[in-house]
Amino acid sequence: MVVISVKKVNVGVIGLGFIGKVHLRNCLRLQAVNVMAVADTSKKALNYAKTFGVKQVFTDYHELLKLDGLDAVIISLPTHLHADCAISAMELGRHVFLEKPLARNLREGQEIISAARRSGVKFMVGYPLRFAQDFGNLRSLMESGVLGDIQIAHAVNIASGPFMHRAEGTAPRPIPEWWLNKELTGGGALMDLGCHMINLLRWYLGDVSNIKARLGHRFNFEFEDHATCLLNFESGASAVVNVGWFSQSTALCVELFGTMTYAQANHSASNKVTTAIKLILGRTPKFFVPYLKELAHFVDYINGCNGENILSGENALSDLDVIAKAYKNQIK
Amino acid sequence: MEVLRLIDYSLPKVEEIVIKPNMCYYWDWSTGQTTDPLFVAALIDLLREEISSQVKISIVESDASAMKCKYAFKYLGYEKLAKEYDVNLVNLSEAEAEKAQVSANGEVFEFSVPKIIKDADLRVNAAKMKYMSFTKVSCALKNIYGCNPYSKKFQFHSKLDKVLAALNKVMPFNLHMLDGLTVCGSKPLKLGLIMASQDPVATDAAAATIMGINPKSLAYLKLAEKEGLGKSKFVPKGTDLRYFKSLYPRKSLSEKTLLFGYRVACALGLDKRLI
Question: Which end of chain A is more exposed for a tag (fewer CB within 10 A), N or C?
Fold first, then answer.
């Protein structure tokens, strides 16, 4: 019998927006994680963390990074801060889990990866859909050969994006303004949602040989609020990706059409009431599960319990490269 | 024009007009929550045809707790409309204003009254009809809430009935045009309704009736009537109100129960555990 001793990983959570809070709650659920501290510029967010027993809170993440004994950080900051925060953490020898997208552009993405290589720390980029059961099952089905050779794929990710419309009876939530500034995000719906779908399709179909995109601007901003992309893969397969920030409800699915038959993974939206009740009771809502699994994967990767990091920086850089080409090859 | 003929309203020969559409957060017209820019565009055409092509028109709105005009104007299509129709787009939170005191139900309020509204010769309220947690109904009277330039409007929610009466007293609008082309009840519906009145209380009473709510049960409407803003008794003209009432997507019992449950959770402080 082989006994693997699992070290408790001391983690700092940086950025407590919506997804940052999901990561914080998940960290508290993992036995192999000790949340040492959190950082956010919002005092309200820091108070939120304190209610869950986090003792050390910072408004400046550079202070958090200096903590003695800190092993790793989970970064869920606005995209324009990814490079500075991730590189600073890596230079101090902290392992890094970084929310997608990797960075605003290829240059910043490459800088992050270079820093990870130089420092030798473990680095993972968050793509929770890779840990969602529906999409995992679809890949297993594809790998089994039941579908035949995949020729065509269709991926859809339509949601409200930054325009997270309030539910009736709740206080309206202001949109963090960085979302509406292309300089700070690097792009719109294609960058935010497209990277998920491109990452999934690359997982299924391999490398992308070329991409074209039609960008839409229903809401008159300089960034696209929806996009339709046409991708060709080295394998000879082709795919259509539709993403959008225009809807009040969520549609998230992938369809694969092979020479034998077709299959789809439809990731249904979580029921808001069930999610709310589970959160209040301290249970794990369905929406949190893929995030919990990816975090567990990161912790296992740090502890050497799993050999491979399935979501490396290089992998995320490839997604960014495809997206950069889509912005370049626009269909008018 | 037909709707104005029905209420025997002739547009006065004026020089400066203010139109206040409903811009609620970042819901576009298709949700039924906000005034359709095409409705406002048709209104502008009508005003220019009937009054003068030279009439100066301004579309006004103010920043709110979770909405900034600079984004809402763009997102909801009003920036495009303003360019195409050569009208002004005014963020009342940044406009020149004068302090004014006004009382409602014995309480005195002080508001900043935007000069552009005060000085306008004709003020047109382009409202929507929808359910609202605090007042049950949001229509003509509630739309004027957005003329208050103060952005942290949620602070007034605890005394909304009085605040609505006070704001409508200090900034009276001449014509209330309801955009019921697409409405939102339990879900959006293309209702195809346009309603007009010079009386905001009557407008709200008619809207409430269509929405299946007894106007007499609305505290804010009772107070508005008491404060002399209008009469809740109305004479419907045009298409039978019952037709629209039969179509209006009302809230189901389960939706009402969920909302009640959420309020109870908030009252118990449990919402702090949510994200």
Answer: N
Smallest Cβ–Cβ distance between A169 and the set B71, B259, B274 belongs to B259
pLDDT in tens, A299-328: 999 998 877 888 999 999 999 999 999 999
The two structure tokens encoding residue B243:
């037709």
Q: What is the pLDDT of residues B241-255, one digit of tens each?
A: 999 999 999 988 887
Cite the beta strand spans of B121-238 per DSSP E: 122-127, 130-132, 136-138, 175-184, 188-197
- Rounded distance, CA A266 to CA B143, Å? 40
- Tracing tokens 């950025």 back to the chain, one arrives at A15
Give chain B positions within 8 Å (CB) of A273.
Answer: 258, 261
> Could you read off the pLDDT of A155-209 as tens digits, one per residue?
999 998 888 755 444 556 788 899 999 999 999 999 999 999 999 999 999 999 9
Cα-trace Rg, chain A: 20
All domains in chain A, ordered by first residue: 9-128 (3.40.50.720), 133-266 (3.30.360.10)
* Tokens 């997507």 belong to residue: B249
Q: What is the DSSP string of A165-188?
A: PPPTTSPP-PPPGGGG-HHHHSSS
Question: Tell me, what amino acid is at A272?
Answer: K
Domain assignment of residue B128, given as a range: 2-273
Taking an 8 Å cut-off on Cβ atoms, the answer to whether A168 and B131 are in contact is yes
Q: Could you tell me the CATH number of the domain that includes residue B37?
A: 3.40.50.11440
Between CA A311 and CA A315, with CA A313 as vertex, the angle to 5 degrees is 60
Highest mean pLDDT among A227-241, A256-270, A274-288: A227-241
Classify residue A288 by its DSSP letter: G
| Best A16, A24, A163, A271 residue to mutate vs chain B (most B CBs within 10 Å) | A163
Q: Residue B55 and residue B53: Cα distance in Å, rounded?
A: 6
User: Tokens 């809401």 — which residue?
Assistant: A219
Task: Quote the number of domains for chain B.
Answer: 1
What is the mean predicted confidence (pLDDT) over B143-172? 94
Per-residue pLDDT tens digits for B120-139: 999 999 999 999 888 999 99
pLDDT digit string (tens) for A9-31? 999 999 999 899 999 999 999 99
Q: For residue B1, give every residue at least 6 positions away whose Cβ sits within 8 Å of its Cβ, in sequence order, or none.
A: B46, B50
pTM of the model: 0.91
